[in-house]
Structures are given as C-alpha cells and as structure tokens.
Amino acid sequence: MTIHSISTKRATRSAEARVAAQDWGALVGDLNSYGCAVMPALLSPEECAEIAALYPHEEHFRSHVVMARHGFGKGEYRYFRYPLPDLIGGLRTALYPRLAGVANDWNERMGVAQRYPADHATFLQLCHENFQTRPTPLLLQYGPGDFNCLHQDLYGDLAFPLQVAILLSQPGEDFTGGEFVLTEQRPRMQSRAEVVPLRRGDAVIFAVHNRPVQGTKDHYRVNLRHGVSRLRSGKRHTVGIIFHDAK
After folding, report:
1. Which residue of 28, 98, 117, 222 is surrounded by the most CB atoms within 10 Å?
2. Taking every annotated instance into account, which residue ranges of this chain make up the domain Fe2OG dioxygenase (predicted)?
3. Is residue 144 part of a domain?
4. CA 168 to each of CA 46, 47, 164: distance values in angstroms, whole numbers, following the listed order
5. Domain count for the chain
6. What are the helix (H) ranges across the chain?
7. Residue 112 within any structural domain of the chain
8. What per-residue confidence (pLDDT) applies to 11?
9. DSSP state, residue 171
10. Which residues constitute the domain of residue 99?
C-alpha cells in the first residue's frame, strides 16, 4: 500500500491516533525547558521510505529550491503542492491543536498579543485572508558535504511559532553526520546550541522564532534558529511540517 492509496479520512484517523499516543506531558515539558522535543517513531520505516520516494516526482511539488543558489547552505528541497499527501496532511492537522496551546501559553508569557485558534482549518483560513496561500510542508534531500545554514521558517506576517521535522533516513546506515541543530540567542549572554539525536521515523518539534524563558523577575524571550550540520556520507531525507502557509 502506498501513501496515496490511503484515503484522507483513514490517514487523518491514523495521524490522530499516533499523535495522541505520544507522551504530551513530557513533550510540553521539554518544549518549555529546551525549545525542542522528540516524538519517537512517529512514522514507520515503510512510511519513511514511501515519503522519501516522492522526491523525484515533480507532480507532488509546487517548487524546487537548490540551497547553494540562495546562500542557504548545500542541498535541496521541494515544497509540496495542495492537496498534500494524505499522511502528511493528516499529521499537520492532528499535531496543530496539541501545539496551539503551547503557542498561546508562550505568547502570553512573552507579552505577545497573537493567539492561535484551536483547529488548523481556522488558522489556515486566517493565513489565506492574509494572502498567505501557498503550502509550506517540504521534503529535503542532502548528499555528502551538504548542510543547512541556521535559519527561521517564517514566510509571512502570520507565522505559527512551532514546527515539526521528521527524519526519513537511518543515521549510521543511510548517512553519517547531518545532525539537527538548534541555537538559542539569549540577551546579553552567549548563544546556546542543542544537537538533537534522531532515528528514522522520529520527529522533532521545535520553536521557529522565539520562546519564553523565566528570568529572575519575569519571562524574557530568546531567539532561535535551526539547521543541519554537514553530511559526511550517504543521503538524508527529511519532511518538514510547517503549520502556516506562505505568501
């Protein structure tokens, strides 16, 4: 069975079940403490292979970006077109409500007025009213020597403050190097780096831009960027789930 032979309804139910099975108390605790959290085995090895195999087929994608042409690093990625593959769309829908509560709590602690609706369809409607209509989930491909510079995926005025990346390849077998890296730029302090170990099928939730940190008197915000270290050998595929659409 391929990813496209699963009905949208079945894929959504499957996504909701596997998202609900995660330890959300621990995940939210890690997000609040470190700005990232790992969901183990969100996808099966077979699902990882099926998604990675979509990469050469242009009919699934709206655009193709070669990073070196834009100074983003080395490697390439493709943005999916609508309709998204059922499993990716289902995960995007199922993950959003779990993360909207975290996003609203963070904004309240940072004194940011923006609040996010409880369901993803309503949030996407807000994006589209803001002329952000292009889908942002993407499939990334790295080869030897490739890397992704530290960056933030904002894409427009309305940006959801958390996103998810799922590793589709097996470290040590399919590739070496290529670690997911997150950095925090703290006011009047040196930056902190976080290297997140992942296995095939694991997903990392992470802050896109800012997150709150408790200071001596009140919360303050830190600025985050994410990237991928240099691939030493092999090939690495990742799917990124970004919850806001782009202009």
Report:
1. 222
2. 133-246
3. yes
4. 10, 8, 13
5. 1
6. 8-20, 24-34, 45-52, 67-70, 86-110, 120-129
7. yes
8. 63
9. B
10. 3-242
Residue 247 belongs to some domain of the structure: no
What values do phi and psi take at 212, rounded to 5? Answer: -85, 145
Instruction: Give per-residue pLDDT as tens, 25-58.
Output: 999 999 999 999 999 999 999 999 999 999 999 9
Instruction: Please say if the pLDDT value at position 10 is more than 70.
Output: no
Residues 170-185: tens digit of each pLDDT: 999 999 999 999 999 8
**Angle in degrees, CA 85, 150, 19, rounded to 5:** 35
- Give the orientation angle of helix 24-34 with respect to helix 86-110, to 10 degrees: 50
pLDDT tens digit string along 180-235?
A: 999 998 777 788 899 999 999 999 999 999 999 988 778 888 999 999 999 999 99
